[in-house]
Amino acid sequence: MDGRTFRQAMGKFATGITVLTTEMAGEIHGMTANAFMSVSLDPKLILISIDKKANMLSKIRASNMFAVNVLAEEQQQYSMIFAGQLKEHEKVSFARLNGLPVLQDALLTLACQVYAEYEAGDHILFVGKVDELQMREGDPLLFYCGKYRSIKDWEEQLLV
Fold first, then answer.
1. What is the edge-to-edge ordering of all strands in the sheet holding 36-41?
2. SS3 at position 25
3. What angle (nearest 5°) sits at the alpha carbon of residue 127, between those of residues 112 and 100?
4. Which helix (H) or strand (E) holds 159?
5. Cβ 133 vs Cβ 64: under 8 Å
6. Phi/psi at 151 (nearest 5 deg)?
7. Any idea where the Flavin reductase like domain is (predicted)?
8. CB neighbours of 156 closer than 8 A, spacing ≥ 6?
C-alpha cells in the first residue's frame, strides 16, 4: 500500500485535536497534533508523536517540557493556526500552567516534563510525565476522514 492509502485508512479513526506548546528563551512555540494518548496512571504518563521534520521536535528536546491542550469544539481556529492553515489571524494569548504556555479555555491542559523519547519510523514518540492539569466542561473538537467534526454533528446524523 502507498502512503496516501495508509493515511486515508488512519483517518477512519476519529480523534480529538490537541495543540502542543512549549517555550524557549521567552518565545512560545505550538503545533497541532492528534497523535496523543494516556499511557500510565502511576506514574501519570502520556504520549505524543512528532514528525522528525517538524520544527517542534527540536523545541521540545531543548526545553525538555511541553503542554498538551485538548481543544474544545469552538476552538477550531487554534487547530488551524498551529497547523499553519491560517496565515493571517489575531494574536493568540496564552495562560500559564506550571510555567508552561497553555491555550485559554481548552477542555484539558497538561503540563509535562519529557520522561522518555523513542524513535518510531519517521516520528519521535515523547512520553511526558504529567506534573499539573486543568479541566473544564464542554465538548471536544474532533477530526475524522480529514474533516473537523463535533459531537453535535454525529447526534444530528443519528436523528435523521
1. 27-33, 18-24, 65-70, 108-120, 123-135, 44-51, 36-41
2. coil
3. 20
4. helix 151-159
5. no
6. -60, -35
7. 10-150
8. none
pLDDT in tens, 65-119: 999 999 999 999 999 999 988 877 788 999 999 999 999 999 999 999 999 999 9
Q: What is the residue whose three cell numbers read 475524522?
A: 144
Distance from C-alpha of 33 to C-alpha of 4, rounded to nearest angstrom: 18
CB within 8 Å of 25: residues ≥ 6 apart: none
> In the chain, what percentage of residues exceed pLDDT 90?
76
User: What integer is the mean pLDDT of 30-54?
Assistant: 96
Length of the chain: 160
Q: Where do runs of H (alpha helix) occur along 29-127? A: 56-63, 76-82
pLDDT of amino acid 160: 55
Q: What are phi and psi of 75, to 5 degrees?
A: -110, 25
pLDDT at 159: 60
Cell 527540536: give the residue: 58
